[in-house]
Amino acid sequence: METIAALVVTYNRLADLKKCLDTLREQTRKLDAIFIVNNGSTDGTAEWLTTQPDLLVTTQANLGGAGGFATGIDTAYRAGHTWIWCMDDDCLAAPDALAQLLASPNLGPCIKNSMSVSVNSRDELAFFVDRPNQAYRKVSDMTGVDLIYGVASFFNGTLVHRNVVETIGIPDKDLFIWGDEVEYMTRAQKNGFPIVTVPSSVFYHPASFDRDGIPWPAAWKQYYAVRNQRRVLQNQFGNTLGRVLYASWAAKATLQQARAQRANRLYNFLLYGEAALDSLTGNFRKRPDTIRTLQLYKWRNK
To answer: Which pTM was predicted?
Structure first.
């Protein structure tokens, strides 16, 4: 008998977590288990979770989204569940979201994603996707078909078969955030597993934003998006070509930051350069408090 476990990774968003869990408990296809990975929250999340007997909770230090999903997927896999339904704590699932995923065409071991819709604009997707022959921005761009191949918004209603985990492993916790989900997706594609979005299964999520335009000091997050991109390209094009393509992309992206007419462009330029250098030298150890550009910004803006 197939069993399905939900996995929610949370960090300091207790109000959002409660809403997310309400939607999971109200699914028309009941879940067999709900796993929570608490990434060291300090807002009362840990205390509240102790009052929820139906949840299977792991509390750890803040290892970012990558570390959270690595722990959670490993835990649910070892518990023997057939499918693991992964999501952030600010996701809201439509009542039949899981049922619709299961009712979609059978692809065998695969990854199926719910359609991520903006919680503030229900006719717009939460995450824009541009493909050579199709741009997905509106809900209407996705509706009308059973499956959309090669498109998925990890980890926002992402249903992963255990055979995928058995083959490709768990997300790389060293990637920390931003890019870890794309790396995991391309790793699955590299190993031949179908990846699809199921438009009839709906998830609501805050809309994505212009990462390059994040005000400092929060822009430190972009460090990880730049650094982790090498791993994505190497999954897609092989180690040697992927590394060359990354070096070319990173050089252009860094120079673009220097020329951009944007506040704090010096810090953006330094951040991109630091991320690219760390990526090319294999330094995936940095956490936010050790990013040198962020340290410089804080020192100059005391």
So the answer is: 0.90
